């Protein structure tokens, strides 16, 4: 999902790899590409990401009916929806609590990885790999924005995230970043032009004001000076006569007064130019460009319990949001009673607008508990067999002593069960007491059949999880495969043979 708070986001040019020979049409190199791509809402991809990051957990696609069958405990819910610009929530005040690890999403399209990291770094006692452990220690004293920048520079998770990217995904992401950078530069240039024109107008206004003040000062000084009457020159009788004076007074003086009067009424003041050309009309400076409406993209938000409260962890929010306290139950699902109405309300809100959404659950990896239970069962079978061997030779030849082919009595590589795991397990105390007290072959054979019957369910549980993991890996393998280069090569071969034009025609 594209980031939305400009003051926290970085727009950087994505450099092409040297292997592309500076060809602008060449696809980016996925292993060295510096951007992020939008992740598909597929639980299989999230499971592979968690596994490769070294975190123990599993993602389930969920609905109301499936919620009750989820393995316990449920660590978090991941809500996926098509983001809209008006979903922004103002959080000018607040802070990130010390007990909550939270990172702001600083790069575009990285919300899937940010949601996962905001979750796994808040699960107490979660088994993680060395890379994530060192990263959490490195960022524990950082603020949310600095943590977001650290994730952006964390190549380990970035490469895992981008391993699901196709060439078109990377090219599209580069185009979006490039367009955003160009729009930002254009907006800056227009804003600079508007500011420059405003500064010039202000400067001219200051000059006019100073000139007006100076003119007024001179006029005031002139009025304050004492006036002296100039002596009128005396005319000789030869220069003028009374008749001539009367004629001039009747003809010339009114003409001069009328001329001044018409000039003041009819003529309009004009600005003088040396060239004599008419002044050009002022240029219209275009108004600042409004931000274009961003493309709607999918966005991931996490809800999870932390220290008795349900928290909303949205990388596009300034801080994590405390949704309220909850009372826990024996199954560790008390927080869900608070989170479910919140999610249901958001789903109804987006359903009215026909906005696509989805919800996934991050649960404790069930295979570990099932595998350990299976190892204990196998250890119990070995213990019963050893007790039978002490009482009866070749007890397996007796009725009830046979072992079907699907029964595990040692290691099981296909289920990830090693012999060392079996030997390290301790038989359940109650069962161990029954084994020790049984001193009859029939009692031990009956007890053995009981343990064998219990193993069937454990084998099925482990096998289901293993098969699901294989299915996830297969989906991820197909998603990561570069079919684009194959298609280009195939079409190129058809074009070289002249077959492509025939097919198109």
TrEMBL record:
GO terms for molecular function: cysteine-type deubiquitinase activity. Its EC number is 3.4.19.12. Residues 35-364 form the UCH catalytic domain. It catalyses: Thiol-dependent hydrolysis of ester, thioester, amide, peptide and isopeptide bonds formed by the C-terminal Gly of ubiquitin (a 76-residue protein attached to proteins as an intracellular targeting signal). Gene3D superfamilies: Peptidase C12, ubiquitin carboxyl-terminal hydrolase. One of its GO terms (cellular component) is cytoplasm. Keywords: Hydrolase, Protease, Thiol protease, Ubl conjugation pathway. One of its GO terms (biological process) is ubiquitin-dependent protein catabolic process. It comes from the Eukaryota. Residues 1-11, 226-235 have a biased composition (Basic residues). Residues 1-33, 195-295 are annotated as: Disordered. InterPro entries: Papain-like_cys_pep_sf, Peptidase_C12_UCH, Peptidase_C12_UCH_sf. Belongs to the peptidase C12 family. This is ubiquitinyl hydrolase 1. It comes from Recurvomyces mirabilis.
């Amino acid at each position: 999902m594209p980031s939305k708070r400009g003051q926290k986001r970085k727009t950087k040019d994505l450099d092409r790899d040297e292997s592309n020979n500076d060809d602008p049409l060449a696809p980016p190199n996925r292993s060295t590409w510096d951007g992020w791509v939008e992740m598909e809402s597929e639980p299989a991809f999230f499971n592979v990401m968690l596994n490769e990051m070294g975190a123990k957990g599993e993602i389930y696609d969920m609905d109301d009916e499936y919620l009750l069958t989820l393995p316990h405990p449920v660590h978090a819910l991941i809500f996926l929806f098509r983001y809209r610009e008006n979903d922004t929530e103002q959080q000018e005040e607040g802070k990130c609590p010390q007990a909550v690890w939270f990172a702001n999403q600083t790069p575009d399209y990285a919300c899937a990885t940010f949601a996962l990291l905001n979750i796994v770094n808040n699960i107490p006692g979660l088994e993680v790999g060395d890379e994530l452990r060192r990263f959490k220690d490195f960022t524990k004293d950082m603020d949310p924005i600095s943590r977001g920048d650290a994730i952006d520079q964390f190549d380990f998770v970035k490469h895992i995230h981008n391993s699901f990217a196709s060439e078109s995904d990377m090219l599209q992401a580069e185009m979006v970043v490039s367009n955003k950078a160009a729009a930002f530069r254009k907006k800056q240039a227009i804003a600079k032009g508007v500011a420059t024109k405003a500064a010039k107008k202000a400067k001219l206004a200051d000059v006019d004001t100073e000139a007006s003040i100076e003119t007024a000062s001179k006029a005031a000084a002139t009025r304050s000076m004492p006036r002296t009457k100039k002596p009128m020159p005396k005319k000789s009788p030869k220069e003028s006569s009374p008749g001539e004076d009367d004629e001039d007074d009747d003809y010339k003086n009114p003409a001069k007064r009328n001329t001044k009067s018409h000039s003041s009424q009819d003529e309009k003041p004009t600005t003088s130019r040396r060239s004599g050309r008419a002044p050009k009309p002022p240029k219209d400076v275009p108004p600042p460009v409004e931000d274009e409406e961003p493309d709607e993209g999918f966005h991931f938000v996490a809800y999870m319990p932390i220290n008795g409260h349900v928290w909303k962890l949205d990388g596009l929010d300034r801080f994590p949001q405390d949704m309220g306290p909850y009372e826990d139950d024996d199954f560790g699902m008390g927080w869900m009673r608070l989170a479910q109405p919140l999610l249901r309300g958001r789903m109804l809100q987006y359903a009215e607008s026909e906005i696509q959404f989805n919800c996934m659950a991050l649960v404790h990896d069930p295979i570990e508990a099932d595998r350990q239970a299976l190892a204990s069962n196998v250890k119990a079978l070995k213990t019963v067999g050893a007790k039978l061997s002490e009482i009866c030779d070749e007890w397996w030849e007796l009725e009830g002593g046979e072992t079907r082919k699907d029964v595990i009595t040692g290691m099981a590589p296909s289920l990830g069960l090693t012999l060392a795991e079996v030997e390290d397990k301790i038989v359940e105390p109650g069962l161990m007491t029954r084994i020790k007290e049984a001193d009859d072959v029939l009692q031990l054979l009956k007890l053995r059949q009981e343990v064998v019957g219990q193993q069937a369910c454990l084998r099925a549980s482990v096998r289901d999880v293993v098969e699901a993991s294989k299915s996830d890996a297969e989906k991820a393998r197909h998603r990561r495969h570069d079919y684009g280069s194959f298609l280009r090569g195939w079409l190129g071969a058809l074009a070289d043979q002249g077959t492509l034009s025939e097919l198109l025609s």
